[in-house]
Predict the 3D structure of the following.
Amino acid sequence: MGIKLKALLKSPWVFHLSTGSCNNCDIEILDCLTPRFDIERFGMVLVGSIRHADVLLVTGSANRKCIPKIKKLYEQAPKPCLVVAIGECALSRGMFINSYNCPVPVDKIIPVDVYIPGCPPKPEAIIAGIVKLIGKIKK
Amino acid sequence: MSYIFYLIVYGFLLTAALGLLASWVDRKLTARVQYRVGPPLLQPLIDIIKLSGKETLIPKDSQKMLFLSAPVIGFAGCVLASTLLWMNNINTQNTFIGDIIVLIYLLVIPSLSIMLGGFSSGNLYAGIGASREMKLILSYELPFILSVLAVVIHSHFSIKLGGILNFQSQNGFVIGSYSGALAFLAMLMCVQAKLGLVPFDVAEAETEIISGPLIEYSGAALAIYRLTKNMLLFLLPFFMVILFLGGMRFDGINILYSALKYTGILALIVVIRNTNPRVRIDQAMRFFWGPVTILAVIAVILAIKGL
Ligand code: SF4
């Protein structure tokens, strides 16, 4: 494993993209930054611009308006960039599965590396998911 | 030859190492203030290594040359300024008339480079951020120069850094006098704005204009900007230590004393950063042109009176 990859695993900066979620998943993501969980211990920082990000967190059910934007954001991210789908909506569209506005789940639009189920997933689950992602890359 | 040695070893390597350390102290203290644990010691270094390994994207409607050279310009200014400071700090004879003026110019270059980068990236938010940075420079530069002037007058009109250091080693620290204390306060505010830390981080407001001028930067270019920022976090308090607290010395027990001086100023900066909300750009300008400039002018007048 090269030094650059090692550094990447030690400081993954996350960018948070909401594609029409009910805002509950987003709140759970922000919970990870609070004193109780404090993901800055692992070098994770929430950044505001996709150009600075290493991990793209996608929440919500990817509605029609959002699909071109998701693709564009993924193209704008500097590679290597990992994608994490958070919440039932992003995984399989959840309760919106029959909606006319949600044609495909997120992983049909961009490649997804880790799926974190739950509606919404607990912060512990999100952190566990990220740990699995890091374990996966290490192999 | 010795100049190149100073440039590489002191100007770049030592300042970068100390700057990364300072940045860690800043993040850790911030985390402790918020009852968090905070990042590990090597985190700032790891961030820089990671960024330099990533892809550097150039936006389509940017000015390519300027976009890529802006971070390097800022970095060069920062390294030169730190070389000048270290040379004076190590040997006070190693000085020339007016180097303090050169230094004031060099310290503006990192801010200028952020502006250049912002304007050349062709992004709307970056443009807003860069124009705010420009207004911020206009507002803090006047009290900054005035408070430097107060120190110069106080130390019997020596416009050499080495001269100021010599003066302090004979007559006690500048901060011990009335004019010095006032100038120190004014300078502290200006340094806070120069570093772009919280009450005056209008140019980079993460939650508002998404890190402003840096929005389009990625990879190695962003790494250079971050390194410059971290170096400035060491450099500007170091400048204040030289002006007001008699410089740093590294022989025997003095090394602890120097570390104490520097950490004291850094802790002040971090505490100010953590206990204040962000001001608007017009409020920042009013603050700098009002109270801070008046403070600095009073310091200058007291210094002329010899207090
Ligand atoms: S998964 Fe549940 S909590 Fe998350 S966005 Fe969808 S409906 Fe909301």
In short: The mean pLDDT of chain B is 84.
